[in-house]
From TrEMBL:
It comes from Prochlorothrix hollandica PCC 9006 = CALU 1027. Residues 41-158 form the Putative restriction endonuclease domain. It comes from the Bacteria. This is Putative restriction endonuclease domain-containing protein. Signal peptide: none annotated. It holds the Pfam family Uma2. Residues 1-10 have a biased composition (Polar residues). Residues 1-25, 192-264 are annotated as: Disordered. Residues 193-258 have a biased composition (Basic and acidic residues). PANTHER family: SLL0995 PROTEIN (PTHR33352:SF2), SLR1095 PROTEIN (PTHR33352).
């Protein structure tokens, strides 16, 4: 008789958790000029869409478009995602973001960037759904742009006065350095410049408040003077009336005595 042996289930290894680092170990910028431009664009895009809770803006944030493959990634100098809420993210994991890729990305060139690296970035952005891609070299003041047409990122032939379909901002590379205009016509400015403008506005408002207060005080003084003049005029009227009444009484007394006050 053949013995019966119980078969045991084959143990399975637990699934290996995929890690998506929040940093690629690379610096945000290689020099102060590149850093200034990255922060200028990112901060102004923040201000531009501050009132829209469904526009996410980030700078130097790792973007993972494919779940399970952390090697497929890029960290645009600035990115904008329409349709995703604002808020903290260690990285942008597209499958956790309603599968929405960044629609607009910016890159700021530095001397360390190589043509091959930038070509790979362009291919990455084309493959993973970017609609608008802008590349600016602050050292040469040159701007290039690409816009998605018929499924590919097509090079923009003329970027002078180009208006971003998604952002509504206008580029003027004829200025040196590049000037970017908001939809309201105001130019992008740095945080320091915006703080200086805000301080000037505060000072102007304070001066206007002081002038208004001075005008109010002068008006109050004029009102008080007018009131005093009115009171003096009333007092004069009352004195004149009293004098008239005294004269009438005197005339009546003289007539009682048989005297004509008119001939005295």
């Amino acid at each position: 008789m053949t013995p019966v042996t119980a078969s045991l289930p084959t143990p399975t290894a637990p699934p290996i958790a995929v890690e998506y680092p929040d940093s690629d170990g690379q610096p945000m910028a290689e020099n102060t000029l590149q850093f200034e431009w990255i922060t200028l664009i990112k901060e102004n895009l923040d201000w531009l869409f501050a009132a829209d809770p469904q526009v996410f803006v980030a700078g130097d944030l790792l973007w993972y478009p494919v779940e399970g493959n952390p090697k497929i990634r890029q960290a645009p100098d600035a990115l904008v995602v329409f349709g995703r809420p604002k808020g903290y993210r260690g990285s942008y994991r597209q499958w956790q973001e309603d599968h929405l890729p960044p629609q607009v990305v910016f890159e700021i060139l530095s001397p360390g960037n190589r043509p091959g690296e930038m070509s790979r970035k362009l291919l990455f952005y084309q493959q993973y759904g970017v609609e608008e891609y802008y590349l600016y070299d602050p050292d040469s003041n040159s701007l290039e742009g690409w816009i998605r047409q018929e499924g590919i990122l097509d090079w923009i032939e003329t970027v002078q006065d180009w208006v971003s379909p998604r952002l509504g901002i206008r580029f003027d590379p004829s200025a040196d350095p590049l000037v970017i205009y908001r939809p309201d016509g105001e130019s992008f400015v740095s945080y320091g410049e915006r703080s200086r403008q805000a301080e000037q506005e505060r000072q102007r408002a304070e001066q206007e408040s002081q002038r208004a207060e001075q005008e109010s005080q002068r008006a109050e003084q004029e009102s008080q003077r007018a009131e005093q003049e009115s009171q003096r005029a009333e007092q004069e009227r009352q004195r004149a009336e009293q004098e008239s009444q005294r004269a009438d009484r005197l005339a009546a007394k003289l007539r009682e005595l048989g005297l004509d006050p008119e001939v005295l």
